[in-house]
Amino acid sequence: MSNLVSIDTSAMHSLEELAKNLISCGVELAVANPKWQVLHKLRVSNLTSKIGGRLFLTVKEALDSFLTTKLAPL
Question: Pseudo-torsion of CA 32, 35, 36, 38, nearest 10°?
């Protein structure tokens, strides 16, 4: 999301619907590298918890989280 400077309610609704559709397919949505304006709107609207809280400040942080989860012993 590094190129996204702002987000409106229509886009937030679309993200929420995308997250629901992905979850039904067994896939989690992760948001990485949002600008502060976008991050603020996502948090104020409570969308971060609706998409499972998988919000990362950098792409590296997102990848590290994914790799840690996938490599963790069961």
Answer: -80
Listed in sequence order, the DSSP H helices in the chain are 9-24, 36-44, 47-50, 59-71
Query: Tens digits of per-residue pLDDT, 19-72?
Result: 999 989 988 888 899 899 998 998 898 888 887 778 899 999 989 988 887 655
Nearest to 14 by CA among 36, 37, 42, 39: 42
Whether 46 and 53 have beta carbons less than 8 Å apart is answered as no
What pTM does this model have?
Answer: 0.75
Largest CA distance in the chain: 40
